[in-house]
């Protein structure tokens, strides 16, 4: 019996499970899913959990059940490629025949002094819970800084504004305008929303140091009661410690079939994989679709296609609170209630389809 081991229950490996179960999994293959928590977490909604506008239960989805799916709940500490084993804290090692690494990412602090020690995070569900505790318990008039005006920073700032209209919120953006790589129309719409709702956007920011109650933008000191860091990600430390070739961002370089170039039994999905797109839940799912097709062909000893189709993403959707949103879909910018409705619909479909 072959053992397919999935490390991490994120978007990529959830899609692997969805495609293999219940009817596509060969009779001679079992699956072992390893994750710290006994549920899949909707990482795209961590901003709302941190802001206090959704409950913890609303960002959790139950893992599927199957007679040949085994769950191991624990923390992966090392991947032993030579002996084909996964080491887990305080548990026995797990041997694999095929391995899909989807351990996700952590914050990257760009060597900014004090950033890691003095800021909060929304990269994991437990860190998002801690951030919620801090933000929800702050007295009226407290100053909150959000570093990074990518999708996570924008959504956190807008959701926090609706949750806590009494807070003084500043959003630090490294670019000359918000979402500078997207149409200017989107940037202007988002910026206007923040102006209208009393969130100060500081463009061309360069955070040089963070102290317990102060953030430094260039040489200017900003007193802060709390700072949330959303300014970039890097692969899980376990992946960063693997003796394999990586790109400048620390992501693992892969063959066109998403496996290690010198090991066709080890695949990497999601935030840890070096791909020609920015990491996202959508990208992880599309990559997982191809990994499943490769696995099925290899298990059946069928030839692989000469090349896999190029992964094409549908676009982005973001929220500005509960009633407004923005997006870039099919090369078109969309704003307002329609964008927010579309995002809510996608989230509902995901929960319904996977739950």
UniProtKB/TrEMBL annotation:
InterPro entries: FAD/NAD-bd_sf, FAD/NAD-binding_dom, NADH-Q_oxidoreductase
Domain FAD/NAD(P)-binding: 3-283
Molecular-function GO terms, alphabetical: oxidoreductase activity
Pfam family, one: Pyr_redox_2
Keyword Glycosyltransferase appears in the UniProt entry: no
Record's keyword terms, sorted: FAD, Flavoprotein, Oxidoreductase
Keyword Ligase among UniProt keywords: no
Residue ranges of the TM segments: none
Domain of life: Bacteria
EC number annotated for this UniProt entry: 1.6.5.-
Cofactor field: FAD
PANTHER family cross-referenced by the UniProt entry: 64 KDA MITOCHONDRIAL NADH DEHYDROGENASE (EUROFUNG), APOPTOSIS-INDUCING FACTOR 1
Family classification: Belongs to the NADH dehydrogenase family.
Name the record gives this protein: NAD(P)/FAD-dependent oxidoreductase
Organism: Bacillus lumedeiriae
Record lineage: Bacteria, Bacillati, Bacillota, Bacilli, Bacillales
């Amino acid at each position: 019996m072959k053992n397919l081991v999935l490390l991490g229950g994120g978007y990529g490996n959830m899609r692997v499970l969805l495609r293999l179960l219940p009817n596509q999994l060969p009779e001679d293959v079992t699956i072992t899913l390893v994750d710290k928590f006994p549920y899949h977490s909707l990482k795209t909604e961590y901003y709302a959990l941190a802001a206090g506008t959704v409950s913890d239960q609303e960002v959790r989805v139950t893992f599927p059940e199957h007679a040949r799916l085994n769950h191991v709940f624990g923390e992966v500490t090392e991947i032993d490629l030579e002996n084909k084993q996964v080491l887990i804290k305080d548990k026995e090692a797990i041997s694999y025949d095929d391995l899909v690494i989807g351990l996700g990412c952590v914050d990257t602090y760009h060597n900014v002094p004090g950033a890691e020690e003095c800021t909060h995070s929304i990269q994991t569900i437990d860190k998002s819970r801690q951030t919620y505790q801090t933000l929800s318990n702050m007295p009226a008039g407290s100053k909150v800084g959000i570093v990074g005006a990518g999708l996570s920073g924008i959504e956190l700032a807008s959701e926090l504004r609706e949750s806590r209209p009494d807070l003084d919120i500043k959003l630090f953006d490294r670019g000359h305008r918000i979402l500078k790589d997207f149409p200017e129309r989107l940037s202007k719409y988002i910026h206007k929303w923040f102006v209208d709702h009393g969130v100060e956007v500081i463009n061309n920011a360069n955070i040089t140091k963070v102290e317990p109650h102060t953030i430094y933008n260039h040489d200017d000191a900003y007193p802060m009661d709390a700072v949330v860091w959303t300014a970039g990600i890097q692969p899980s430390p376990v992946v960063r410690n693997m003796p394999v070739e990586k790109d400048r961002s620390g992501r693992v370089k892969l063959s066109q079939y998403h496996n290690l170039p010198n090991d066709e039994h080890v695949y990497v999905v999601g935030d840890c994989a070096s791909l020609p797109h920015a990491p996202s839940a959508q990208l992880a799912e599309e990559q997982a679709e191809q990994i499943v097709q490769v696995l099925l062909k290899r298990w059946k000893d069928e030839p692989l296609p000469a090349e896999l189709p190029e992964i094409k993403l549908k676009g982005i959707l973001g929220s500005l609170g509960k009633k407004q949103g923005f997006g870039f879909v099919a090369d078109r910018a969309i704003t307002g209630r329609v964008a927010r409705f579309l995002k809510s619909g996608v989230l509902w479909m995901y929960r319904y389809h996977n739950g």
